[in-house]
UniProtKB/TrEMBL annotation:
It comes from Halomonas icarae. This is Carboxy-S-adenosyl-L-methionine synthase. Belongs to the class I-like SAM-binding methyltransferase superfamily. Cx-SAM synthase family. Its EC number is 2.1.3.-. InterPro entries: CmoA, Methyltransf_25, SAM-dependent_MTases_sf.
C-alpha cells in the first residue's frame, strides 16, 4: 500500500445524502491533513506526550495509544524517548488505519518496540500500563459506553500511572458554547475548508462524535478512582486532561505535585 497522504476534500462537493462519518479507506488516505486542519492544538498536544512521559512514565513501561489512527502518538513518543524507555501498543478498530499505522511505525521507528492491535477499546484485554493516551477517541464511543471504558483503563494503569484524555468538548453555558463553535468554524475556514465542507462534515458527525463537558469528563475520571485530574490544554472547544492514579506504596505520605 502507498504511504501517500492527500488533502482532505471528502465533503467538498454537494452530497444528496450525507452518510455517517466513518474511518474508512477514503478518510485514511487524507487523515493527517484532515486532523491537522480540523483539530485546534493537535500538533501541540502530540508534542507534549513525550514531555509528559519523561516526567511520569516508569522506565520501560507500556504505553497504550487507544484509537491510535495512523500511530501519530507513537511517532511523537519515539521521536522524544529512547527505545528502552517504553513499549508502545496502539489500538484501533479501523483495519485501514491499523495497516497504515503498522507500516509507518515499522518504517519510521525500527529500533523502538511498537505494536498495533486491531480491536475495540471497549473489549480489549489490557496489560498493565504506565501511561494510556486517548487522543480524540472517547468522543466517538456511544456515551453509555464511556464510563465502563474509563473504569477498565483505571484498572489497567499501574500505581503512579497517568491517563491523557484529549477531546472535543461542549461548554455547559449555551452562549459560551455557541461562541466557541462559531470560532471553531472560523478556524476551519481559515484552514481552507469551505462553508459547504464545514456544514456537511457537521451533519456526518451528528450522533457519531458526541462531546461531553469538561465537568462530565472530570466527574467520570474521579468516579473511576483517579486521585487527581487536571485540564492541561484548551483551545476553543478542544481540550486535553491528565488523570493520575495514586502511587499505592507511599503509605499516606503527602505526594509532591509530580507524584499525585
Ligand atoms: N471502539 C473503538 N475502539 C478502537 N478504536 C476506535 C473505536 N472507536 C473509534 N476508534 C478509532 O478512534 C480514532 C479516532 S481519531 C484519533 C486520532 C489519533 N489518536 C491521533 O492522535 O492521531 C480522532 C479523530 O479523527 O477526530 C479512529 O481512528 C477510529 O477508528
Ligand atoms: O469536530 C469536527 O468538526 C471535526 O472535524 C473533528 C474531526 C477531525 C477528524 C476526524 C473526525 C472529526
Amino acid at each position: 500500500m502507498s504511504d501517500a497522504s492527500y488533502r482532505d476534500a471528502i465533503f467538498s462537493t454537494p452530497l444528496d445524502r450525507v452518510a455517517r462519518f466513518s474511518f474508512d479507506e477514503r478518510v485514511v488516505a487524507c487523515f493527517p491533513d484532515m486532523i491537522r486542519r480540523s483539530v485546534p492544538g493537535y500538533g501541540q498536544i502530540l508534542g507534549m506526550l513525550g514531555l509528559i512521559a519523561q516526567r511520569h512514565l516508569r522506565h520501560g513501561a507500556r504505553v497504550y495509544d487507544l484509537g491510535c489512527s495512523l500511530g501519530a502518538g507513537g511517532l511523537a513518543l519515539a521521536g522524544q524517548l529512547a527505545p528502552d524507555a517504553f513499549r508502545y501498543t496502539g489500538v484501533d478498530l479501523s483495519p485501514a488505519m491499523v495497516s497504515r499505522a503498522r507500516e509507518t511505525l515499522a518504517a519510521e521507528c525500527p529500533d523502538h518496540a511498537m505494536e498495533v492491535i486491531e480491536g475495540d477499546i471497549r473489549q480489549l484485554e489490557y496489560q498493565p500500563a504506565g501511561m494510556i493516551v486517548l487522543n480524540f477517541t472517547l468522543q466517538f464511543l456511544p456515551p453509555k459506553d464511556r464510563e465502563a471504558v474509563v473504569a477498565r483503563l483505571f484498572a489497567a494503569l499501574e500505581p503512579g500511572g497517568v491517563l491523557v484524555l484529549s477531546e472535543k468538548i461542549r461548554a455547559e453555558d449555551e452562549q459560551e458554547n455557541a461562541w466557541l463553535v462559531e470560532r471553531y468554524h472560523d478556524f476551519k475556514r481559515a484552514n481552507g475548508y469551505s462553508d459547504l465542507e464545514i456544514s456537511q462534515k457537521r451533519t456526518a458527525l451528528e450522533n457519531v462524535l458526541v462531546p461531553d463537558t469538561l465537568a462530565e469528563h472530570h466527574a467520570r475520571l474521579d468516579q473511576a478512582g483517579f486521585s487527581r485530574t487536571h485540564t492541561w490544554f484548551q483551545l476553543l472547544n478542544f481540550a486535553s486532561l491528565i488523570a493520575f492514579k495514586h502511587e499505592a506504596s507511599r503509605g499516606g505520605a503527602t505526594p509532591t505535585p509530580d507524584e499525585v
